[in-house]
């Protein structure tokens, strides 16, 4: 919407923590999505005044400067594809949370944020992101050579949370050899981990912590294509999902590599990278009780082990009758949320309309119903994972994540 960048003041721009101006821009983005869902096009007013979040009373209000038209056809999407792409991405989250990620990523420029989210939807459809949820690890491995190898060797896994409650993804870089798997298998595994991570991010937390363990790294482990793909994921497809990235114990040989990689990074992503040179430094970010004891300062006796697919664990996915019933229940609540959101968008402009506060309370209640309905449906549309089948499952039936530490 705005032609110039608008920063997000600390502690704002999140569900339940919106400035009045941010709330209006969120409404604007919902309104445009509804226009696109209804007709395939959306027309928006643009403004040309920046710096108005938290500005002084003497600062002029934003001035309308014209209109911008967004067409689904220009993106390569259809009206029929839009709503499923939107709601398959929302999952059990508060629907506003997804839109706010793209608004923050595009400095509250609604048109840019809308184009960004639509391109992400197109990518999810073209790359069939849903298959990493709907297919078992065995099925994915049969299609993508080397997919399961990533899990068996423990190249990357999720375990525990950091001091800010963010789930931690550990990546053991020394285990990576580009020739061991097809590039597409590595990409699919990366998306698999990201989609698992999304389930483990528990409100009000919105981001994850990544640890790139560079112990034993050599140039034989370097994979520039994968780095480019990972950067693109965080910048374009999963914006505002990275809380902090630790590059741990990078050897001297890595610094030549870093000079090549650093220019590829968006400044926002680059600002979240921290280099740690000792295990003790890691405990500044991850509590020692949550840090695996393979690190000198860690007290958690966790040792990664891959547990293979269990026969019959996905039988509920074959129960199409129950799946369709739960899907219709979830969709019915979805339609209620959309109707409330349309009312919320226009309530201040319609004489005699219900108050914004009343509608917001109802929207909040509906989002809780949506979450419950989604996780009832989840085992009928999502294959079970390592994080469901372990001795102490992380992912619970109600969508919560419970970590077990061995101290």
UniProtKB/TrEMBL annotation:
Organism: Podila minutissima
Protein name (database record): CRAL-TRIO domain-containing protein
PANTHER family in UniProt: PHOSPHATIDYLINOSITOL TRANSFER PROTEIN CSR1, PHOSPHATIDYLINOSITOL TRANSFER PROTEIN CSR1-RELATED
InterPro entries named among the record's database cross-references: CRAL-TRIO_dom (IPR001251), CRAL-TRIO_dom_sf (IPR036865), CRAL/TRIO_N_dom (IPR011074), CRAL/TRIO_N_dom_sf (IPR036273), PITP/CRAL-TRIO (IPR052432)
Stored PROSITE patterns: CRAL_TRIO
Lineage: Eukaryota, Fungi, Fungi incertae sedis, Mucoromycota, Mortierellomycotina
Domain CRAL-TRIO: 146-303
């Amino acid at each position: 919407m705005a032609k110039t960048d608008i920063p997000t003041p600390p502690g704002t721009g999140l569900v339940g923590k919106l400035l009045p101006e941010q709330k209006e821009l969120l409404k604007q983005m919902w309104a445009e999505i509804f226009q696109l869902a209804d007709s395939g096009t959306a027309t928006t007013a643009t403004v040309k005044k920046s710096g108005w979040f938290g500005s002084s009373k003497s600062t002029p209000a934003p001035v309308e400067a014209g209109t911008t038209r967004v067409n689904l056809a220009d993106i390569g999407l259809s009206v029929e594809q839009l709503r499923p792409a939107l709601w398959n991405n929302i999952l059990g989250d508060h629907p506003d949370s997804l839109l706010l990620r793209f608004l923050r990523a595009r400095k509250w420029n609604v048109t840019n944020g809308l184009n960004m989210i639509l391109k992400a939807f197109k990518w999810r459809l073209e790359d069939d992101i849903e298959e990493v949820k709907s297919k078992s690890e065995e099925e994915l491995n049969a299609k993508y050579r080397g997919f399961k190898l990533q899990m068996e060797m423990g190249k990357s896994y999720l375990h525990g949370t950091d001091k800010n409650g963010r789930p931690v993804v550990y990546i053991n870089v020394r285990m990576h050899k580009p020739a061991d798997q097809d590039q597409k298998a590595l990409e699919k595994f990366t998306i698999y981990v990201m989609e698992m991570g999304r389930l483990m991010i528990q409100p009000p937390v919105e981001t994850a912590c990544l640890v790139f363990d560079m112990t034993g790294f050599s140039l034989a482990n370097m994979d520039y294509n994968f780095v480019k793909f990972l950067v693109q994921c965080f910048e374009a497809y999963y914006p505002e999902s990275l809380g902090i990235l630790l590059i741990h114990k990078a050897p001297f040989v890595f610094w030549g590599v870093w000079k090549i990689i650093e220019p590829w990074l968006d400044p926002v992503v680059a600002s979240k990278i921290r280099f740690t040179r000792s295990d003790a430094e890691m405990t500044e970010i991850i509590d020692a009780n949550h840090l695996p004891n393979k690190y000198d300062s860690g007290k958690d006796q966790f040792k990664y082990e891959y547990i293979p697919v269990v026969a019959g664990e996905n039988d509920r996915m074959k129960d199409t009758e129950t799946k369709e019933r739960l899907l219709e229940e979830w969709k019915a609540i979805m339609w209620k949320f959309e109707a409330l959101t349309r009312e919320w968008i226009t309530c201040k402009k319609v004489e005699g309309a219900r108050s914004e506060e009343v509608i917001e309370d109802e929207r909040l209640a509906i989002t809780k119903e949506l979450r419950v309905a989604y996780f009832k449906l989840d085992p009928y549309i999502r294959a079970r994972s390592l994080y469901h089948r372990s001795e102490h499952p992380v992912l619970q039936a109600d969508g919560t994540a419970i970590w077990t530490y061995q101290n």
